[in-house]
Design a protein that fits this description.
4 strands, mainly alpha
């Protein structure tokens, strides 16, 4: 949600409240990425930066700083402005290619499979198994809280 209208409605203020609530939550945080997870919204919905205990993703989900088309457009605008500042005449073909290549690269690197292969999450799940998985994860979190830990009684080996 970018633009004057969403800014006037207080999207930043409300988003900050959400991030604060998630960051200060004292319950186990479990994340299931079901659609697009971009930018600050990724944090607000308990992305990797807010340290959830588990992150799983549906196969159709996407995670990136922003959508590929938006990134391509931003890079085009920045490059065009820089060339104009330097007194150069912008080449529309080069700018089109830059925009398209950027969009394709970001789109190819935002898929669920790409993210899982890079260990950005704990795995891909069949959407039909979501409820069962959440039950298992809550059991794991409960077990972790009640199981006593044994203190380390030896030093760290250095090789």
């Amino acid at each position: 949600m970018v633009g004057t209208e969403s800014e006037q409605q207080g999207v930043i203020k409300h988003g900050a409240k959400m991030i604060q609530a998630v960051a200060n939550a004292r319950v186990p945080k479990l994340t299931i990425v079901v659609g697009g997870s971009y930018g600050a919204g990724n944090y607000a919905m308990c992305g990797r930066g807010l340290d959830p205990r588990f992150i799983f993703a549906w196969p159709n989900s996407r995670t990136a700083v922003m959508g590929g088309a938006q990134a391509g457009k931003v890079l085009r605008i920045v490059t065009e402005a820089k060339q104009a500042k330097d007194g150069l005449v912008p080449d529309p073909k080069m700018l089109d290619m830059l925009e398209q290549v950027t969009a394709q690269k970001l789109d190819s690197q935002s898929t669920a499979l790409y993210g899982s292969a890079n260990l950005w999450d704990d795995g891909l799940i069949d959407p039909r198994d979501t409820r069962t998985l959440l039950g298992y994860l809550l059991d794991i979190c409960h077990e972790a809280e009640v199981r006593p830990l044994q203190a380390n009684s030896f030093g760290v080996a250095r090789f």
